[in-house]
Amino acid sequence: MSVLIRGGTVVNAERTFAADVYCENGTIAAVGENLDAPSSARVIDAGGQYVMPGGIDPHTHMQLPFMGTVASEDFYTGTAAALAGGTTMIIDFVIPSPQSSLLSAYHQWREWAEKACADYTFHVAVTWWDDSVYEEMGTLVRDHGVNSFKHFMAYKGAIMCDDEVLVNSFSRALELGAIPTVHAENGELVYRLQQSIYDKGVTGPEGHPLSRPPEVEGEAANRAIRIAEVLKTPLYIVHNSCIQSLEAITRARNEGQRVFGEVLAGHLLIDDSV
């Protein structure tokens, strides 16, 4: 099967330019002006339109069971919606319960994802530590193509990683050539503030920002960055939402450290007032 996308404005990482795009058997075969194509090719007129690669969303949670709830989208509905919006691949999260096998959780998520209609892959969360976690991280990298491991610095009493877990897991990720990622919030502070606010009778969504002032994110981001600096591992910090974490990332990058910050659209547009 071949497709010729003619007359569009191509947008890629390098530049924006007028060009045709010819695809054969699902692969882009040529990009250029006035391309020829077989008479059997499907021709799409892209005049006045932008033509760009499909998006990769590196942070999704499809049908995630989490602290008594389940995410509203499953792997079919979520990836169908993604494709409709131009996102052609997701990176979801395997999140094992503490004391449970990383490999068993990985296979469970793979089973759930069989109904996905877009490309997908997984980060795998490290939620506890012993020798079996060390070994299974190696198996996931060598045999299953996993190359990133997630760490939650929040959710005390559930999946929160303390510094011991971070140090062990970051070190193992470095050995394996994988990148550690963190959800950066000081879980102890969040837990204390949650209890205080709840005791005052605040139980609605307005309690969320009250229990998570920007300082708890900034502290955790900086702590993860400095641990990674000592261990000489790169670091990816997910869904940054405040100046304090951005400043910690910027400072580290200016010092030559390999730190990457992720942001969600909501964090650029929405503040505590809503």
CATH superfamily caption of the largest domain: Metal-dependent hydrolases
For the record, the CATH architecture of the largest domain stands as: Alpha-Beta Barrel
Give the neighbour order of strands across the main sheet.
6-9-10-11-12-13-14
Straight-line distance between termini: 49 Å
Radius of gyration: 22 Å
Q: What is the number of strand segments? A: 14
Name of the top-level CATH class of the largest domain: Alpha Beta
Beta strand %: 25-35%
What is the H/E order?
A: EEEEEEEEHEHEHEHEHHHEHEH
Describe the protein.
The chain has 274 residues and is of the alpha/beta class. It has two domains: 2-51, Urease, subunit C, domain 1 (Roll), CATH 2.30.40; 55-269, TIM Barrel, CATH 3.20.20. 37% of the residues lie in helices and 26% in strands. It has nine helices and 14 strands. It has helices spanning 75-84, 102-112, 131-144, 163-176, 187-199, 207-211, 214-231, 243-254, 265-269, and strands at 2-11, 16-24, 27-32, 42-45, 50-51, 55-60, 65-66, 69-70, 87-94, 119-125, 148-152, 179-183, 235-237, 259-261. A seven-stranded parallel β-sheet has the order 6-9-10-11-12-13-14. Strands 1, 2, 3, 4 and 5 form a five-stranded mixed β-sheet that branches. The chain has a two-stranded antiparallel sheet with strand order 7-8. Helix 7 (214-231) runs parallel beside helix 8. The radius of gyration is 22 Å and the shape is globular.
